[in-house]
Specification:
heterodimer; A: 865 residues; mainly alpha; 35 helices; 0% strand; disordered N terminus; disordered C terminus; B: alpha/beta; 6-stranded mixed beta sheet; 7 helices; globular; binds guanosine-5'-diphosphate; binds magnesium ion; Small_GTP-bd (chain B); GTPase activity (chain B); nucleotide-binding (chain B)
Chain lengths: 865, 202
C-alpha cells in the first residue's frame, strides 16, 4: 500500500480514514479511495520514472552545451566539495561516478542558472567560496537523489538536507545551521532522510519534522533552495515572473489594488535591513507591495526576450501527467518562481514587525496586522485540515506566522477565508519561508484581486464561467435553469477554494500542478468545465434543485480519477485560453464594479438593471438581453468613469512613485553592476547558443501543434458525435415513453369508463333488489295476516263442527223424547235459533270455564307472592 | 420599513422568481420544498447547526466554509406534511458578504445565527437582518438563532436581547446548541410551521 510509506501513518486505524496525504476521507469516499489507491500507486511509479528521465536528459543537454564555459569555476568547485563529499562517496560506493557527473552539471548550472548565485552575491558578506560550498553540497544531495538506490542511508540523508536548509549565506552560518539541524534530525533518523528519498514519500513527513522541530525553538524554517536538478525549470519560470512584473509595472490595472512591480522589488535588493523595514512600513501604508526579487532577476529582465526552452512541451505533458510526490513541493516553487520573488530576510522582518506590534499592543494602528484579521486567523487555524497529523501545535504556529506575515505583506488582501487552506497545503509540502513565497506568488499574482475585500475578480470570474458554461453546455444549463439552480452557486466555492475540500486530494494536487505550472487561472476554468462535462449527463436526470446540487457536490467529491479529470480539462478546452478569459473579464468587470460601488454606497444594488444578480438572471432568460445590457454598460461608461478614476488614480500615483524609487535603487545598486554585466554577457552567449536550437525546435513545435490540434479536433468531434448520439437516444426513449404513457392513459380511461358502467349497473341492481325485498316483506306480512285469518277460520270451522255435532246430538235426543216428532219438530224449528244461541252461549261459557279459574289462580299466586 | 424594503426586494424577488416558482410549483400542499439560507458571523456555528440537523453529528473540528455549501434534509410534520429544506450554509467572513446575495436571493427562509458568548456576533446578526429586509424576498420567513447555548456560563448576550430584537423585527427566536443538539430540530420544525402553505389544489 502506498500509504505505508508515510511514517506518520503507521497507525493502521488512521490509515483507514486518511488518504496518502494524511487528509481525512469522508466515510462515503473510503471505498472509492481504496479502489483508486492502487491506480495512484502505479501512476506515481510511472511518472517518477518519466520525470527522472526528463531531468537526467536535461542535465546532460545542459552539460554538453555549457561545459566549456565554466571550467574554471567547475574546478574550483570540485576541489572544494571533494573534501565535503568524501564521506558520502565512501558510503555510497557505486554512486560515486554518477555523483561526479551531477556535480559537474550543477556547478555549471549554478553559474548559468545564476539566480542562485545572484542572490548569494547580493548578500553583503557572502563569499564566493561560501556559495560554492553550498552548491557543492546541493549537488551532492541531488546526486544522491537521482541515484535513489540506497534508501537506508540515514546519515547521508541527514547530512544532505543540510545545505538545502542552511543556505542563508555566510559559510559560518551554514555550518552552524548544519550542526543544529544535524543534531536535531539525527535523533529522528529515518524520518529526516526522507528529503533524499525520491521514492515518493519525502514531502509530508520531513515537513512535519521540520514544523515540529524548528518552531519549537521559536525558529522559522530557513529558506531552502530547491534541488538543482530542477534549476532549469525554475529558470524558465523565473522569466515569466519577471516578465509579468515588468508588464504590471507599466500597466495600470483597473482593479487598482495591489500592483507588484519589478521596480519596487528592484529597490529592495541592495537595501540594508533597516531600509527594508522602512520599506515594509511604506508598503503597509501605501497599499503597495514588496515583492521579493533577486537583483540578478531585475537586471536580467532588461534583456527580457524569454529564451526558448526546447523541452517546454515535454515538460508540459509531464505536468499534465502529474508531478511526483517527492518533487511536488520543489516543482511548485519552481513553477511559481519563488526565487525570482523572494527578498532575503523579508519574511523574517515581517514576523519581527508583527511580534513588535503585538507587544506594543498597537493592533489597530498601522503597525502589525489589524485585529479583525488576527481574530479571523485565530478562529480558522483549528478549522484548517482539522486533525491532520502534520498540523499539530507547531504546524499551526507555522500556519499562523505565514498568514500574519502575508497580511502584513499585502494589506489589500490581508486575510481571507480559503487562504488558510492554501497556506496549510503549502506548509505540508515545503519549509515555511518557501511556503510563504509560494503563497505570495499564488495570491498576489495568480489570484490577483480575488481575495481582496471586495473580491472583485472572484465575482468577475463567476460571470465569465457562467458565460462559458452557457456556451458549452446549453442543455445542461437549460435544465438547471428549469430547476432554478444557478451554476455559480456551485462553481463559486469551487473557484474560491481552488478545489481544496471539493475534490479528492489526488485530484486537487493534480489540478494545482497544472495551474501553478501555467501561471494563471485557466486551469480553474478548464477543470470546472471538465467537471460539468463529466457530471452533466447525470445532472440532467435530476428532478429538483436540491437533488441537482447534492448530486453535483457528491460527484465532484468522488472524482478519484484524477488523470481523467486533468486530461479532460486540458485537452477538451483548449480554446479556453488566458487571452479569451481576459477578454471576457473585461466584458463583465464593469457590471461587478458597479455593484460593488453601489453596495459600498449602501444603495439598492439589486434594483439596478446592470447589477450582478440581474445580470445573472438575464443570462438565464435572454442571452440577447445581456448583450444589450452590455451595450448599456458601455454607454454608461461615462457615468462609471468617476468610479473608475478612483481606482485608477491611486494606482497611477503609486506606480509613478515606485518607478521613481526604482531609479534611485538602480543608482544605489551600482556596486553590483559588474556582477550583473558579467552575468548578462553569459546569458547572451547562452541565448545565442540556443538560437539554433530554437529554430529546430520551432519546426518541431509547429509540427507537434498540428498533430495536437488534429488530435484534439478528432477527439472533440468524436465526443460531440457521442453526445449527439446520446441526446438522440434520450430523445427517442423520451418519445417512446410518451407514447407508452398516452397508450396507458387511453387504457386507463377505458377501464375507468367500464368501471363506471358496471358501477351504475350495480347500483341499479341494488335498487331493484331493495324494491324486491320490500315487496317480499309486504307479501310476507300479507301472508301472515292471511295465515292468521285462516287459523281463525279453522277455529271457527272446528267450533261450527262441534256445535253442529252438539246440535245434532240434541236434536236426536229431542226426537226421542217428543211423541209427535212432527209437531215438536216444527216448534223446535221455530225456536231453534234462540236455543242455538243459548246453547252456544253455554258452550262458550263451558269452553272458557277453566280460564277464569286459571286467571284467578294466577292472580292469587301473584298476590301470595 | 416593510414598505421601503419591499420595492427593491420585489425586483430581486423577480430575479429569483424562477426559484420561487419552482419551489412552490413542484411542491404541493402536502410536500413542501423550501430554500433556506444560513447567515451570520464566522464561527458562530452555522455549519455545525446544519450538520447536526442533517447528519445528527457534531464535529468540534469542523472545516472553514469557503463560499458556501449545500445540504438538504426532509422532515415530516404532525399533520403528515413533509418539508424538504434546501439549505445553503454561507461563509461568515465579512468580505464574503459580497457573495451572499447569490444565496439568499429567492430563499423562502433565512436563519440568522449568532453566538450567545459573542456580542460582536449579535451585532453582525442585526446587520444581516437589515440586509435581508432590504434585499431579501419580501415574504421571507426569518429566524434569529442564538447558538452555543450550552456555553451558558460564558453567555454575554442575554436571551432577552434576542427575544426583543426578534419580536421587533417579526422574527422567530430560539436558542440552540449544535453541540448538545438542543433545540436544533425544534428550530427547523418551527420554521416549517411558519411557512406559507401553497393553496391546496385538487
Ligand atoms: N460549545 C459549542 N461550540 C459550538 C457550537 N456550535 C459550533 N461550535 C463550535 O464553533 C466553531 C465554529 O463552528 P462552525 O460551524 O464552523 O461555524 P461557522 O463559521 O458559523 O460555520 C467550531 O469549532 C465548533 O466546534 C455549539 O453549539 N456549542
Ligand atoms: Mg461554516
Amino acid at each position: 500500500m502506498s500509504r505505508n510509506r508515510f511514517n506518520f501513518l503507521h497507525n493502521s486505524e488512521l490509515e483507514l480514514r486518511r488518504d496518502a496525504y494524511g487528509f481525512a476521507l469522508r466515510p462515503q469516499h473510503i471505498q472509492g479511495y481504496r479502489e483508486y489507491a492502487g491506480i495512484y500507486k502505479e501512476e506515481e511509479e510511472e511518472r517518477t520514472q518519466k520525470w527522472k528521465n526528463f531531468l537526467e536528459n536535461q542535465e546532460l543537454a545542459q552539460l554538453r552545451s555549457t561545459k566549456e564555459k565554466y571550467k574554471e569555476t567547475l574546478q574550483a568547485n570540485s576541489t572544494e566539495f571533494e573534501e565535503e563529499t568524501v564521506r558520502d562517496k565512501n558510503s555510497e560506493g557505486n554512486k560515486a561516478e554518477a555523483s561526479e557527473l551531477k556535480r559537474t552539471t550543477f556547478s555549471e548550472k549554478g553559474s548559468e542558472g545564476n539566480e542562485a548565485e545572484a542572490s548569494e552575491l547580493k548578500d553583503e558578506t557572502v563569499s564566493v567560496s561560501g556559495s560554492q560550498v553550498d552548491e557543492a553540497q546541493d549537488t551532492r544531495w541531488k546526486a544522491d537523489l537521482s541515484e535513489r538506490s540506497g534508501r537506508s542511508n540515514v546519515p547521508e540523508g541527514t547530512r544532505e538536507t543540510v545545505p538545502e536548509r542552511g543556505r542563508e549565506g555566510e559559510k559560518a552560518e551554514v555550518t552552524e545551521l548544519k550542526e543544529e539541524t544535524l543534531s536535531e534530525r539525527g535523533k529522528k533518523g529515518d524520518d529526516s532522510s526522507r528529503k533524499s528519498d525520491s521514492d515518493g514519500s519525502k514531502e509530508l513527513s520531513p515537513q512535519k519534522e521540520q514544523l515540529s522541530e524548528e518552531t519549537k525553538t521559536e525558529k522559522v524554517q530557513p529558506w531552502a533552495q530547491i534541488r538543482p536538478s530542477l534549476g532549469t525549470i525554475e529558470h524558465m519560470m523565473n522569466f515569466r515572473v519577471k516578465k509579468r512584473k515588468v508588464m504590471k509595472g507599466e500597466q495600470i490595472t483597473k482593479s487598482g489594488d495591489h500592483l507588484p512591480s519589478i521596480d519596487e522589488a528592484r529597490s529592495s535588493g541592495g537595501e540594508s535591513d533597516e531600509d527594508i523595514k522602512e520599506k515594509v512600513c511604506v508598503t503597509v501604508t501605501s497599499y503597495g507591495s514588496v515583492n521579493g526579487l533577486d537583483d540578478k532577476g531585475s537586471q536580467e529582465d532588461e534583456v527580457s526576450p524569454e529564451p526558448y526552452f526546447p523541452w517546454k512541451e515535454e515538460l508540459e505533458s509531464l505536468v499534465h501527467g502529474g508531478v511526483p510526490k517527492d518533487l511536488r513541493g520543489e516543482l511548485w516553487q519552481a513553477f511559481v518562481g519563488v526565487k525570482a520573488r523572494r527578498t532575503e530576510r523579508y519574511y523574517q522582518d515581517l514576523l519581527a514587525q508583527e511580534i513588535n506590534a503585538d507587544e506594543s499592543k498597537e493592533h489597530d494602528n498601522s503597525f502589525g496586522v489589524p485585529r479583525k484579521w488576527k481574530k479571523q486567523i485565530e478562529k480558522d487555524i483549528p478549522r484548517t485540515f482539522p486533525a491532520h497529523p502534520a498540523l499539530n501545535e507547531d504546524g499551526r504556529d507555522s500556519l499562523r506566522r505565514l498568514l500574519l506575515a502575508y497580511a502584513l505583506h499585502n494589506p489589500s488582501v490581508g486575510y481571507c477565508q480559503a487562504m488558510n487552506f492554501f497556506a496549510g497545503l503549502l506548509l505540508l509540502l515545503m519549509p515555511e519561508e518557501n511556503a510563504f513565497w509560494t503563497f505570495v506568488g499564488i495570491i498576489d499574482d495568480y489570484f490577483d484581486g480575488y481575495y481582496t475585500e471586495e473580491m472583485i475578480e472572484a465575482q468577475v470570474d463567476q460571470l465569465v464561467f457562467e458565460e462559458l458554461i452557457r456556451e458549452r453546455f446549453p442543455k445542461l444549463v437549460h435544465h438547471l435553469d428549469y430547476l432554478g439552480v444557478q451554476v455559480t452557486w456551485i462553481s463559486g466555492p469551487w473557484f474560491l477554494s481552488i478545489f481544496v475540500n471539493i475534490l479528492p486530494w489526488e485530484s486537487v494536487l493534480r489540478v494545482w500542478d497544472v495551474l501553478l505550472y501555467e501561471g494563471n487561472r485557466v486551469m480553474l476554468f478548464r477543470t470546472a468545465l471538465a467537471l460539468m462535462e463529466l457530471y452533466g449527463p447525470a445532472l440532467v436526470t435530476t428532478k429538483d434543485a436540491g437533488d441537482a446540487i447534492t448530486l453535483l457536490q457528491s460527484l465532484a467529491g468522488s472524482t478519484f480519477d484524477s488523470s481523467q479529470l486533468v486530461f479532460t480539462a486540458c485537452m477538451g478546452y483548449l480554446t479556453v485560453t488566458e487571452a479569451r478569459l481576459q477578454e471576457l473579464r473585461e466584458k463583465h468587470r464593469p457590471a461587478v464594479l458597479l455593484v460593488v460601488e453601489e453596495r459600498s454606497k449602501g444603495g439598492r444594488v439589486w434594483k439596478d438593471p446592470n447589477g450582478l444578480a440581474t445580470k445573472l438572471y438575464s443570462f438565464k432568460h435572454d442571452p440577447e438581453l445581456l448583450i444589450e445590457e452590455n451595450k448599456g454598460t458601455e454607454g454608461s461608461d461615462d457615468a462609471l468613469a468617476d468610479g473608475d478614476l478612483s481606482y485608477k488614480e491611486p494606482a497611477a500615483n503609486l506606480d509613478n512613485m515606485l518607478s521613481g524609487l526604482s531609479v534611485n535603487s538602480e543608482l544605489e545598486g551600482r556596486d553590483l553592476q559588474e556582477q550583473v554585466v558579467w552575468l548578462k554577457v553569459e546569458l547572451c552567449s547562452l541565448l545565442e547558443e540556443k538560437r539554433s536550437a530554437v529554430l529546430r525546435a520551432e519546426e518541431l513545435e509547429t509540427a507537434l501543434m498540428e498533430m495536437v490540434k488534429q488530435d484534439n479536433r478528432r477527439q472533440l468531434s468524436a465526443r460531440i458525435e457521442q453526445l449527439e448520439q446520446e441526446v438522440a437516444e434520450l430523445q427517442q426513449s423520451l418519445a417512446d415513453k410518451r407514447e407508452q404513457e398516452s397508450a396507458m392513459i387511453q387504457v386507463l380511461m377505458k377501464v375507468e369508463q367500464e368501471q363506471r358502467i358496471t358501477e351504475d349497473a350495480r347500483r341499479n341492481a341494488e335498487q331493484d333488489a331493495r324494491a324486491q325485498r320490500y315487496a317480499v316483506n309486504v307479501l310476507e306480512e300479507k301472508y301472515e295476516k292471511a295465515m292468521a285469518s285462516v287459523a281463525q277460520m279453522e277455529k271457527r270451522a272446528v267450533m261450527a263442527e262441534s256445535m253442529l255435532e252438539a246440535t245434532l246430538q240434541y236434536e236426536s235426543g229431542q226426537a226421542k223424547a217428543v211423541s209427535s216428532p212432527r209437531a215438536v219438530h216444527n216448534q223446535s224449528s221455530v225456536d231453534s235459533p234462540k236455543r242455538r244461541i243459548g246453547l252456544f252461549g253455554l258452550a262458550w261459557r263451558d269452553r272458557n270455564k277453566g280460564k277464569p279459574s286459571n286467571l284467578e289462580g294466577s292472580s292469587d299466586r301473584k298476590s301470595t307472592n | 420599513m416593510g414598505c421601503s424594503g419591499s420595492v427593491p426586494a420585489r425586483s430581486s424577488g423577480q430575479s429569483g422568481g424562477l426559484n420561487n416558482l419552482e419551489n412552490a410549483g413542484s411542491s404541493d400542499a402536502k410536500n413542501l420544498r423550501v430554500k433556506l439560507v444560513l447567515l451570520g458571523d464566522s464561527g458562530v456555528g452555522k455549519s455545525c447547526i446544519v450538520l447536526r440537523f442533517v447528519r445528527g453529528q457534531f464535529d468540534p473540528t469542523s472545516k472553514v466554509t469557503v463560499g458556501a455549501s449545500f445540504l438538504s434534509q426532509t422532515i415530516a410534520l404532525q399533520d403528515s406534511t413533509t418539508v424538504k429544506f434546501e439549505i445553503w450554509d454561507t461563509a461568515g467572513q465579512e468580505r464574503y458578504a459580497a457573495l451572499a446575495p447569490l444565496y439568499y436571493r429567492g430563499a423562502a427562509v433565512a436563519v440568522v445565527v449568532y453566538d450567545i458568548t459573542s456580542p460582536d456576533s449579535f451585532n453582525k446578526a442585526q446587520y444581516w437582518v437589515k440586509e435581508l429586509q432590504k434585499h431579501g424576498s419580501p415574504d421571507i420567513v426569518m429566524a434569529l438563532v442564538g447558538n452555543k447555548a450550552d456555553l451558558h456560563e460564558k453567555r454575554e448576550v442575554p436571551a432577552q436581547d434576542g427575544i426583543e430584537y426578534a419580536e421587533k423585527n417579526g422574527m422567530f427566536f430560539i436558542e440552540t446548541s449544535a453541540k448538545t443538539a438542543d433545540n436544533i430540530n425544534q428550530l427547523f420544525e418551527e420554521i416549517a410551521k411558519r411557512l406559507p402553505r401553497p393553496s391546496p389544489s385538487s
